Amino acid sequence: MSLLLTIFGEGRDLDPLQMSARAVAVFFSGLVFIRIAGRRSFGQRSPFDYVVAILLGATLSRVIVGASPAIPTVAASFVIVLVHRIVAWACVFSPKLEKADRRGREGSLQRWQVRR
Question: What is the DSSP letter of 106?
């Protein structure tokens, strides 16, 4: 346990090496979370996908700088990814939810391009 505290530090008083070790750990956990979320989270660019990207970035950055406890913050990030996965799955079976997911991506951009 003391080895982990030496490597990753505790609280807000982190030296550059501890912050770097946290950044590496968060990077790889972020990759795992993105794999769990699926390609859709960064490929479709729907409002749900943007919410996940922003929340993951904001939440995981707090782990790196020591602003929040590491384990609960990573767990919260995992829950965000799971909720996104559930919403994506629900969009497959609910036409209304899928329509809400697509809103803003279709139509307005195409009309703007035609006017030009």
Answer: S
CB 53 within 8 A of CB 42: yes
Torsion of CA 71, 76, 82, 86, to 10 degrees: 160
Q: Can you list the positions of beta strands (E) in the chain? A: none
For the chain, the maximum distance between any two Cα atoms, rounded to a whole number of angstroms, is: 64
pLDDT tens by residue, 13-67: 888 999 999 999 999 998 888 888 776 656 667 777 788 888 989 999 999 988 9
- Burial of 63 per CB tally in 10 Å (0-12, 13-18, 19+): buried
Q: Rg of the Cα trace of the chain?
A: 18
Tokens of 7: 């490597």
Percent of the residues in the chain that have a pLDDT greater than 90, as a whole number:
23
